[in-house]
Amino acid sequence: MSKATFRKFKKSDTEAIIKLWKKCKLLVPWNDPYKDINRKLSIKDNLFIIGEMNKHIIASAMAGYDGHRGYIYYLAVLPEYQKKGIGSSLLSIVEKKLLQLGCPKINLFVRNTNIRVKAFYKMNDYEIQDSQIYGKRLIEDN
């Protein structure tokens, strides 16, 4: 088996990334993935990373940094490539990029329905924190 390679997202990756997110069950009706991608690309921070194998997109991570903490969204690995270290490698790349920006801490969101991924984050030294998330939608995607 070939080794995964990682690079910055390109606009031409859009359809493959959305297909990946669908297969990994990361999409929800209230978020338009095309709008999420375009919003991310408008930031130009190079924190949208994809993983490839044999020139096929198999993984992604979209991250951000607001000067106080980093955030990771849309971390996904195609099911057939999970448990092979690809997700951990991608997570490590994002962590290093955030650290280079001076980011002192990272938060990520896991939906309560995504129970399987909790072991992955624990294995990568992430802990459940004693916080609650509040949200407010300012722009509807639908």
Overview of the molecule:
The protein has 142 residues and is α+β, with helices and mostly antiparallel strands. The protein has one domain (5-123): 3-Layer(aba) Sandwich (Aminopeptidase). The chain contains four helices and five strands; from the N terminus they run βααβββαβα. The protein has helices spanning 14-23, 33-43, 86-100, 117-123; strands at residues 5-8, 48-53, 56-65, 70-77, 106-108. Strands 1-2-3-4-5 form a five-stranded mixed beta sheet. Strand 4, helix 3 and strand 5 (106-108) form a beta-alpha-beta unit. The longest helix has 15 residues, at 86-100. It is globular. 20% of the residues are buried.
Q: Which CATH class applies here?
A: Alpha Beta
Distance between the termini: 41 Å
* Strand adjacency order, main sheet: 1-2-3-4-5
Number of distinct beta strands: 5
Rg result: 15 Å
Structural class label: alpha+beta
Mean pLDDT: 94
How many discrete structural domains?
Answer: 1
**How many distinct helices?**
4
CATH topology, by name, is: Aminopeptidase
Any low-confidence stretches, pLDDT <50, length ≥5?
Answer: none
Give me the CATH architecture, please: 3-Layer(aba) Sandwich
Q: What sequence of helices (H) and strands (E) makes up the elements?
A: EHHEEEHEH
Name the CATH superfamily classification. Answer: Gcn5-related N-acetyltransferase (GNAT)
Q: Main β-sheet: number of strands, strand sense, barrel status?
A: 5 strands, mixed
Percent of residues in β-strands: 15-25%
* Helix coverage percent: 25-40%
Large-scale geometry: globular
